[in-house]
Amino acid sequence: MNEDSLMHPPEFVIKPRSHTVWEKQCVRLHCTVSGWPDPRVVWYKNNVAIDPLANPGKYKLESRYNVHSLEINRCDFDDTAQYHASAMNSKGEQSAFASVVVKRFKGDVDESLPSPRQGPVSEYGITFQTHIVDQFGVSFGREGETMSLGCTVIIYPALNRYQPEVEWYRDDVLLSPSKWTHMHWSGDRATLTLTHLNKEDEGLYTLRVTTKSGYETYSAYVFVRDADAEVEGAPGAPLDVRCLDANKDYIIVTWKQPAVDGGNSILGYFVDRCEVGTTHWIQCNDTPVKFARFPVTGLVEGRSYTFRVRAVNKSGMSRPSRVSEPVAAMDPADRARMRGTSAPWTGQIIVTEEEPAESVVPGRPLELQVTEATKNYVVLSWKPPGEKGLEGVMYYVEKCISGTDSWQRVNTEIPVKSPRFALFDLAEGKSYSFRVRCCNSAGVGEPSDPTEATTVGDKLDIPSAPGKVVPTRNTDTSVVVSWEASRDAKELVGYYIESSVVGSNVWEPCNNKPVNATRFICHGLMTGETYVFRVRAVNAAGLSQFSPESEPVEVKAAIGGGIPHGVLSKMGPGGNVGQLTEHRPRWTGTHETVQSPPDTMQKHSKAQADTEVRQGAGAAELYPAEGKNKGGKRGSVSWAPDLAKTMPSESGSVSDPLTDTVKAAHLDPVAAKVQDEAVKARKFSVDDNREKPRPRRGSAASPAPPYGITVLECVRDSMVLAWKQPNFIGGADITGYFVDYREVIDGVPGKWHEANIRAVSERAYRVSDLKENKKYQFQVRAANMAGVGIPSLPSNTFLCEEWTIAVPGPPHDLQIREVRSDSLVLLWKPPVYQGRDPVNGFYVDIKEAEAPEEAWRGVNNKATEKSFIKIKNLKEGEAYVFRVRAQNKAGVGNTSDVTEPVPAVTKPGTKEIVVDVDDDGIISLNFECSGMTPDSKFVWSKNYEEISDASRLTVETKGNKSKAVFKSPGEEDIGIYSCLVTHTDGASSSYTLSEEELKRLLEISHDHKFPIIPLKSELAVELLEKGRVRFWLQAEKISPNGKVNYIFNDNAVSQGEKYKMNFDKNTGVIEMIMESLTPADEGTYTFQLQDGKATNQSSLVLIGDVFKQLQQESEFQRKEWFRKQGPHFIEYLGYEVTPECCVILKCKVGNMKKETSALWYKDGHQIKSDEHLGFTEGVLKLEIAQRDIPADAANNTESPIPRRLKISKKDAGVYEVVLKDDRGKDTSTLNLTDQGFKDLMNEVFSFIANSSTPLKVTSTDEGIRLYTFVSYYNDLLQVTWHYKDSAIAFSDRIKSGVVGEQLWLQITEPTEKDMGKYAIEFNDGKGGLRRTLELSGQAFDDAFAEFQRLKAAAIAERNRARVAGGLPDVVTIQEGKALNLTCNISGNPVPEVTWLKNDREITSDEHCILKFESGKFASFTITGVNTSDSGKYSILVKNKYGTESGDFTVSVFIPDEAGGKKK
Hints:
Strands 45, 46, 47, 49, 50 and 51 form a six-stranded antiparallel β-sheet that branches. A five-stranded mixed β-sheet has the order 2-9-8-4-5, with no helix packed on it. By secondary structure, the chain is mainly β. It contains eight helices and 102 strands. The longest helix has 23 residues, at 1337-1359.
């Protein structure tokens, strides 16, 4: 077994094999079992544990290397039995079965062996009789007390050398001596002492005394109540503290919640730990946990701990629970090695030397999964990696919130040593994934595959409240309480029951330890008091809500006595107790929660027998016992009209014996031959009988013999028989049956003996006091008022041996009802023998009567828990046969006997159950039968169980009609109701009362009891013209005699000045009109209608905000009506923005005339803009973004061009329009301040944005410019430039601006980094609008090239040679004067300067001095001018970027010449 595997229950790898051996031989059974912790294997013979010490030399038990064997020496007949090995550990229990059959050669008898045992098992010829007397009763204790239970045991004959085996059980679990339980056997008295009571000690205690001749048991219940709380109002202590999943990193502690919460809800639990060997308790959790399961961490590896739990509510802390069993904090594999299974000594010691291996980084952990998740913690488990080297590995756990990829290591400080881990401090409601890494000295390995997302929270829901609680009288101090189980409850722990004396309102717990069943006997009640009960369920998540309270029940003894000591009858499917006439308690050897009921039959001596009926029986004619066999087995039911009494279907017949050898021994050859002859005789009698008329009632005869005797169950000393009702009952109802039996020895039948002295009414009976391993035959007689009929033919020969097969026996007593052309209903009784586990369902098979055996097919694919089924989709006229199989956990048992063929035909005159609701609202089911006889009776059933309780249903029968009347229909009445008419040809019918049908019938019943006037519409309110208020409703139909009462706040109101009432009886419209509403009119308005017996009313509540809103609306409508009598606004003042971004204020008016004036105001001042004020078709307009005349067109009076003025904050204000004439006035106001003005501007901005052109690019000598044009620009417009979806941070290199209607972005000296997506976003207060441009690729290259070209041109323009100024155009100078001219020269590089005279270059000399200084200043000097110096002069400057010239003219004149003549 893998040491690192998780705990798992036992599993049989090899199961024991059955053997057939000869007498005196030895036989060995062996099996191989796996499981962890190591299972404990116990061998059983016929469900009794085998003790080798009690039979020295007979049995030998061995267990080595998980192989377990049982060896039986010198087998004899007594060793023929069923054996099984039961393997058990803390995770569960498994069993495997095998049979041993011992054969003997004919005539080969070993005289040295004891003779075959007759009757009960004896020892050396002695039969022991055991009696338990001086018994303990139902006991009550309190936590902390000591209690002793004892019984006196009388064994006859008394042998000093012989001691019986004495065992004590609690809830069918064997008790062992411990510090809590002490056991003592004095030779005649057995005592069990509970040294320190705790609630774990509560339960059903059973004393079992076993001798060689059998055993005897006695049981009684022990109740343990909570000790007084240390703090008043504190809860009771938790119970049943256990440790699960223990390893070196943590231990999971579980417990059960207490029944007593101290009057306040339990807030949670604290878990304490104590190291074994110390007395110091340490609290394990800082905050209380509500879930009854908690992983305790922080333990020291290898040390042992005990745990306890305390509950807390707002009043305080409970007492601590009983401490758990010690558990060691170590891995399961280490614990197994410490217990150890060592190999056998071989006598050799082999020493090897291994090369040191290099460390290997471990691989990925495997199969990581979340094994448990609550809101407080999550538990992970995984398997170690396959590659991990020779050294040990440890683990790191990582978590990740779902939807992210961020993994966080949980155990950062200390690695995990075990392949399990508990995580705390996770956020409730969040989803996590987990993964694990391995590590060793070589490093940390790769992570495992992550888990699926796990949401932190309690996966286990608190169970739903149990259903209906039904108390039943039991004894003078106890009541049997049963309830409906919680639906869909998961991991249910059990139920708590509470009781309360009616009227006290004080609830007391009836049990302090949860019970798993749905029935419980509540003891310790006060005789004569009336109690009610309630139940709640509990699981690890918490306690459910309480069930509804039960009906009150008075505590007094039930008729016939109650169930003693809390021992409940064994429950069948559906919770019904089997209806056998006699059923003795027996020990099954398994852990059952309840025991079978005690024997309720009183046995009398034959002298006390009632034999008058038998003696009065005349010689009766032999009537047929069985019908004719058609194509298969003989039928097992009779659905003919001779049904004497209809009983609930709940039992069944037996399955085949365990082995073929035993099966062969059941039927004696001689008896079989006699039986075959009897069958032939019965076949002859069938036809003969069918031709005979039935006796009339006046000439009743004794009934024909029953037939079809089968065995339903067989134990060591008794057998349960079943048989079929006679085909002819003698004209009178059968009153009972008598059973006889006889022993068959070597095929020779003995004398008949009476099995029952008093007649039994059932067709099933337990024959007791038989001898084990003996063969018997049986016969049955039927009795009626005419006497006891002749006995049936002897049954087959049956062997009396205990059945031990796992699957249940077959159902029995199949009945067919409600036969129709396409359907019928099949009923049956569950098997008496349930097998190893209770029956949990049934399968029904069908085939055509004449079809072969291979034609059998299933009716239901899913097992039904009910003991009846409606079979549909039958073919009309076809005859069918049916059979039923039962199943339990072990599997499906054998089939029942096959029914008689049933044709699917609806017989003439067949009626169905009709539901009716009379005028008084009484609901009833009605059935009529046309084929009744004088002896016929109506038998009503619910869910096919005869109704005997008249508290809910009353049956009335008159002639051929029967009525079942419901007294107070409710949910408890839901079910299938059927009616059967006896002594007919099968007249029957059923009606299903579902929850929906019940609801429908109750509504009809209520309508019939309290007829109402139907309404088309309920009371409503509406507003009329002038704000008047109208209350109205409409009835569907009302006669002229109908009346109406008008109610306001419980006071009647009538016609008057305030109220106007109208009642149109033709249309059913009822109305009340009020002119207006005042605060005094707040309240409830009701119209009460009456029309003969029928009534109805409808109310309308007008209070609070509803009334205020209606009143305000009424007042508004009233004012509106008066307003509209004069000039008024149809549409109030608003604004409109045109595509040209003009803002126009407009309103729509009505009821205007010539004298009506319309005045505009802004901020209280009248606007003097008559030329812009228009009134056309009821619409007033005012343009506030007005047009103006440009300055250059001011003088153009013919057609001045208007210019729009930009709307600005100056236009914000409150605008008002007033309409006024002699009829009144109306005012409309528009607030264009703050948010109003902002909304207006946003709409203007929206138009501007939509008018923008697509974003374009152009180049300048400075860089690249992006731009867009808008049709109209406003200074308040906000735009944002984006680059790659991020807002641009402006700088000296990147700037934006506006020129006219152009919005631009300038990128100076662009580079490739400036390539990308650009956008301009217009903000209009809504979604805005973006224009984008992708400046990359060719677009960028073209723009960048153009920028380079323009930049070069600008540089050239800026640096070319240039004459900046300083030269005049004309110089006039007197001869002899000096001329000095200077001009500025610019250019880079410094230009070359050339002077020209009359387009010819001149050079500098003494007369004309030319200078060029500092590269900037050029001078022209003539020291003394003369007439020859006159002319056109030019200066020519030139560098690499260009050439430029400057010209001037010099004119020299002589002053002596008259007039100053110039030259």
